[in-house]
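Reviewer 2 asked us to include a model.

Predict the structure of this chain.
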Amino acid sequence: MAQARILVADDEAKIRDLVRMYLQAEGFAVTEAKDGRQALELFRQTPFDLIILDIMMPGVDGREVCREIRQKSNVPVIMLTARGEEVDRVLGLELGADDYVVKPFSPRELAARVKAVLRRARPPQETPAPPEEALEFPGLTINPSSREVILSGVPLSLTPKEYEILYLLARSAGRVFTREQILEKVWGYDFFGEARTVDTHITRLREKMAKVPDAHPYVTTVWGVGYKFEAPK
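Predicted model (structure tokens):
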């Protein structure tokens, strides 16, 4: 597999150096950005496999960078927050980030998060598993091998998390998943998230599906419990 390319944007040089050295030791190619403006310039010039953004940067902060990236790309994003307050974490995830890490953090933890996010976004190819069959529903096709979703003939541009939530629910159509079960299965046991994280991603998924004219909603809320996939009858 080609060496994964990672962009690290943080205004603190010591943190950039620490992250770069640790990720390079793990086999990643790392590019540094000293602020949000430089991060956007590098993003426009170079394709990256994952982007690490500090939320609190002078000038163009991590939230603005993430917002602009999400308008053009589904590249996985991990946010760094110094305070660890829920508002920082949730806001970053609402903007489309895939995960977050609270400062001060262990480089080992960050590397583990990077590997987990990359695994979900780009499954390993060394020992390919037999291709899974596409999930077919009236007006909706989900192709696991290409991670392509076609709704009423329109390809949907989903982030890795949005796709994984939809696929999780669709392959067990009719089954109700709690928010905690979705967190565990989509983010993994090492993701210290809140139920609101799931709500945020499902809201974004629904908004994208709702933009397709006359499309069935598919993902429904089971009040007081969680969510389920419901195909039209």
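The helical segments are 13-25, 36-45, 62-72, 86-94, 107-121, 160-170, 179-187, 195-210. The chain has two domains: 5-121, 135-229. We have added this to the supplementary material.
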